[in-house]
Every structure is written in structure tokens, then in C-alpha cells.
Amino acid sequence: MRIALTRDPAQAGPLEAGLRAAGLQVQFLPLTEQRLPEDTSALKTALAQLSRGEFAWLLLASGNAVRALCRVGWDGTVPEGVRVGVVGPGTARVLADLTSVTDPWMPAGEKSAAGVLAEMPAAASGAEASLLLPQSRQARSELRRGLETGGWQVTQIGAYETASLVAGGRLEAGVHPLRLLPTPEPAHLLDLDRQAADLRRDRLTHFNPTVVLVTSSSAADALADLGVPERVRLLAIGRPTAKTLGRRGITQAHVLREPSAAAVLAALGR
Asked: What pTM did the predictor assign?
């Protein structure tokens, strides 16, 4: 069985490794890409403030936030006493790969924004409660608002933006100069034109269909713009992703209980 994830091959991790170990053919169907904002002055200003010790915490909610900071010159250095936190192990892996930070704080339980809010240490007073939160420009406000409710003085910065690669109903994956990730190898990508040709040649039921794992709400929107390819089964990571699909008229997706190979295999009955 073939499964395609709607994210970039460079973002692969334990989920993909577990699927391959279970015998699935793993490919990628990136429908969006993450880019630095054209104007990075606010991001650079925030990093300068961080280097001067004006924040007590740097909280990183995604690997792409780490990549964006590094693209504008951050090497992982923070002043003594400044704590670095991450949402989960995926972000921690990118942080360790790109910087010297190998032991950030992260929630012990749920690896998500909700986990951060449940376990984040209590805010102190004054400057000790200042926190830098670089996120996607399209990030929802729940994490920032939850931190502020907990007494943190949050400086939220748009470190990168997510752009759809679907235009006019077709996937137009060019190479954008502000792209955060390296250009993927074609061999790693699901070729939709080839799949359509295979379907035209073989209409029998033994044709091995593709499962598409929709990994984010932005990818769900792009998939709706593209149109669900013929004879594709959809899995969605998280209720927000499934909700976006439903809002766009795509209601057949199965919602995974967690972003893991075990959850995917359970949904597929394997």
C-alpha cells in the first residue's frame, strides 16, 4: 500500500519511519511550503532583543520556526538564564540539527500547544515573565492567549508564512527563493499525473489505491483547491485539519487520534 503525506520530505520523522517499517510505500505530496516573510526586520529585531537578554524564554512551536530563526542568523545562542522550550520532539530534533541546543524544555505529557499550556512553569513577575514566541504568520491565537492568561508577557513574531502550491486547480511546485526547506527530490514525491494515467489504464478493483495523510489545516485547504485525486482514501491528523476539510466539502476523511504510525495503521486496519 502506498501512503502520501501532504508535507515536505525534509519534515519526515518517526511517523514516516514507522510506516516504512510496517511495509508501506511512503511518498510525499507537499501542497504548501513554508517561506521566510519578505520583510524580516521584525524577526531580526526580536533576535537582537533575545541576545540582549530581554526575554526570559524562547518558546518554539515548530521546526519551521527554528529554521526561520536560523535563516536570519540565529545559531542557538541565548544569554545565560534564558530558557528555550519546544512543543515536542520534532521541533527538538530540528533544533539539535541546526543549533547547539540539545536539551530544551518540553511538556512531559501531550506534545502540543495544549501540553505546553498545561505544563508551562508559572510566570514570574516583571522581565522574568517575558517570552518570545516565533510562529507562522497564519498561526492560531490559542497558544499566545493561553500563555498570556497564565501571566506571560508574550511577544509573538511572524517568523515564516505558509503558501499554497496549488494554483488554478493544479499543483505548481516551483522553487521560491524564500523557501525554508531544501527542494525535494522528485523520486520522493507522489506523481499525480502518473497516478491518473495508471487509473486510466487499469480500472479494475485490484489497482492499489493511494492513501493521503492530510497533515495540517493549510494542506487541507490546498487539497480542496486541488480536488481530491480519484480513488484516494483520506486520513487527517487532528480535528482542526478534519474540520477544515469538512468546511471545504470533503467529509470522507478519517481523523487520527494522534500523529503516529500506530494510529495510521490502526485506521487502515493493519
From this structure: 0.84
